[in-house]
Structures are given as C-alpha cells and as structure tokens.
Design brief:
It is a single chain. The termini are far apart. Strands 2, 4, 5, 6, 9, 10 and 11 form a seven-stranded mixed β-sheet that branches. The chain has a four-stranded antiparallel β-sheet with strand order 1-3-8-7, with no helix packed on it. It is mostly beta strands and 122 residues long. The chain is 0% helix and 51% strand.
Length: 122
C-alpha cells in the first residue's frame, strides 16, 4: 500500500543546488514521519533529515550545517530536500523513508524508496 517515488537527483558542480522530491502514494497510520538518508559506496547509510507530517517538527544530521532544508506538502503526500552549497562529499545515493519518528536511527523507518543518485563534481 505504501509506495515511495523519488526524483530530483543528478549531477551538479560543487557549490550548486539540488532539490529532491519524494511522493508517498500510500501513507498508513504507522507513517507519522518522512526521512532522508544517504549512502556512498563502501560507507554506512547516513541520516540526513526528517520531518513529522503533523506539526512539521524537523531533525537534521550534524553534517548538514544549515545547507539542507526538509519540507513537505501534506495534501500531495510529498516531502522535499533542498540542498544548497553542495560538496563532493555529498555524493551518494539518497533514500526517502516513511517512519514513526524523526529520530536518526534507521529502525524507526519502515518504508523505503528506491533511492536517487546525487553526484557532485569538483
């Protein structure tokens, strides 16, 4: 019943911006939040940001340092990740996930998208 469709990934130069989208076509009662994670080759999956559908309270990974912003449009069941001042180290496969909290641990998230590739060149 839950299907996450991601878009917006691509190739940009360092210092550029990118906006990722994730549409949840089948929200359930257990989907109280939406998060973004990323994973680079050979590295562990890393928490980026999360937001509650109700109220909009957010949480961000420490590495973001104000560069990224998560937002949502409830009527469209869509969340966004605006990424500015991108760096080569931001290169990764970015996943969206529906969950039960905005905590960074993966165990709180139950539904995962297929991922969208973000590549930052220098």
């Amino acid at each position: 019943q839950v299907h996450l469709v991601e878009s917006g990934g691509g190739l940009v130069q360092a210092g550029g911006s990118l906006r990722l989208s994730c549409a949840d076509s089948g929200r359930t009662v257990s989907s109280a939040s939406m998060g973004w994670f990323r994973q680079a080759p050979g590295k562990e999956r890393e928490f980026v940001a999360a937001i509650y559908w109700s109220g909009g309270r957010t949480n961000y990974g420490d590495f973001v340092k104000g560069r990224f912003t998560i937002s949502k449009v409830n009527a469209e069941n869509t969340v966004y990740l605006q990424m500015n001042s991108l760096k080569p180290e931001d290169t990764a496969l970015y996943y969206c996930a529906g969950g039960r909290s905005i905590e960074p641990s993966e165990g709180w998230y139950d539904f995962w998208g297929q991922g969208t590739q973000v590549t930052i060149s220098s």
